[in-house]
Design a protein that fits this description.
single chain; 247 residues; alpha+beta; two-stranded antiparallel ribbon; elongated
Length: 247
């Protein structure tokens, strides 16, 4: 095991150097796994793990059926509390726009009623298993999947509004809550670092070994009431978290 780890790290380090030196420029297609294995005298499995390391480092991106290409990925700066400021979403902008600006971004959204898990029920003040609205999203930036997120809201705040739609309109969910007199005026976030679950490895296209994620659980409050609870799973190699607050 130690020998395998040393081997794939060696291959990853040498390929990284070729990329950083410009020998393999931006957009260049890397050799096939078999060619890398032959060039560095390792097994194909070792070459695969080496590319996993480079992908986690944001130096390459794989395209199904096309191969692996040099593609520098600039970390996403998730700057708080500015990204959640009412001046931002109240003017019709999305939180993700604050994070990524003009960078190409796609999102898959699934909306539906689900039984409230324990942590959701506790936050929203309902019994476990009570139906709540779930908004599940999978975000990709520049073709790299970077985040999974699921938000839960009380049924009575969502029913009959655009919160039930995949496109919630200008200002997103918070804009729709504000229209009902429930604009969030306070947020709390809890963050832990951990290893991804097997499902998250697949959904985020992470390396099988050594990948880490950041789990962020955010509660949005309007007055004394929690009106939304969101759990996000971020690819730790794709993000930089920045916080600004007064002394």
């Amino acid at each position: 095991m130690a020998g395998e780890q040393a081997a794939y790290r060696r291959v990853a380090d040498q390929l990284r150097q070729r990329i950083l030196s410009g020998e393999l420029p931006e957009g260049a297609r890397l050799p096939s796994l078999r060619d890398i294995a032959a060039q560095y005298d390792v097994a194909v499995g070792i070459a695969t793990r080496a590319l996993d390391v480079l992908r986690a480092d944001g130096l390459v991106m794989s395209r199904p059926g096309a191969g692996t290409f040099v593609r520098r990925f600039e970390r996403i700066v998730r700057s708080s509390p500015g990204r959640l400021a009412r001046a931002h979403w109240g003017a019709g902008a999305s939180i993700q726009d604050h994070d990524t600006g003009p960078r190409p971004r796609t999102v898959d959204v699934v909306v539906g009623d689900v039984p409230a898990p324990d942590y959701v029920a506790s936050a929203l003040g309902v019994e476990t298993g009570t139906p709540v609205l779930s908004r599940s999203r999978r975000f990709a930036v520049e073709e790299r999947v970077v985040q999974l997120a699921v938000s839960y809201l009380p049924i009575e705040l969502a029913r009959g509004t655009r919160i039930e739609h995949t496109d919630t309109g200008p200002g997103g969910v918070y804009g729709r809550l504000a229209e009902q007199g429930c604009a969030p005026d306070r947020f709390t976030e809890r963050i832990i670092g951990r290893s991804p679950t097997p499902d998250e490895v697949v959904a985020l296209d992470l390396a099988a070994d050594g990948a880490r994620v950041l789990e962020v659980t955010r509660a949005a409050h309007s007055g004394e009431r929690c009106v939304e609870i969101t759990r996000m799973v971020l690819d730790a190699d794709a993000y930089e978290l920045e916080y600004s607050f007064p002394a």
